[in-house]
Amino acid sequence: VQLQASGGGLVQPGGSLRLSCATSGFTLDEVAIGWFRQAPGKEREGVSCITRIGGDTFYADSVKGRFTISRDDADDTVYLQMNSLKPEDTATYYCAAAYSTNWEGALWGQGTQVTVSS
């Protein structure tokens, strides 16, 4: 059972990236998947999540209208499309899987670095 996050990189302000969270050992209708980020010197914050039943999506106010979370049940992969990136989006991004969106006992993947800079 594991999560593998990828897709980070260096991008200029206004640019786009798509992060992937590949899962194994469970199916996406069993767990909620969330994206979190942590910038140096700051606490980890929730960015977006998609629920296990119904696939409802939620976003932090700071990314609404710019980020889109989606899932591919055939590939057991969750994506985070990030558009109109800002320097303040710079952080290490993590995906997590849990049975509920209180994230208790969540399984965490390794982080992928996103740097937004000119």
Give a structural overview:
The structure is a single chain. The protein is mainly β and 118 residues long. Helix content is 0%, strand content 50%. It is built from no helices and eleven strands. Strands 2, 4, 5, 6, 9, 10 and 11 form a seven-stranded mixed beta sheet that branches. A hairpin with a 6-residue loop joins β4 and β5 (45-50). The termini are far apart.
Question: What is the rounded Rg?
Answer: 13 Å
Number of helices: 0
What is the number of strand segments? 11
The largest sheet, given as strand count, sense and whether it forms a barrel, is: 7 strands, mixed
Measured distance between first and last alpha carbons: 38 Å
Order of helices and strands: EEEEEEEEEEE
Could you give a short description of this structure?
The protein is mostly beta strands and 118 residues long. Helix content is 0%, strand content 50%. The strands form 2 sheets. Strands 2, 4, 5, 6, 9, 10 and 11 form a 7-stranded mixed β-sheet that branches. A 4-stranded antiparallel β-sheet has the order 1-3-8-7, with no helix packed on it.
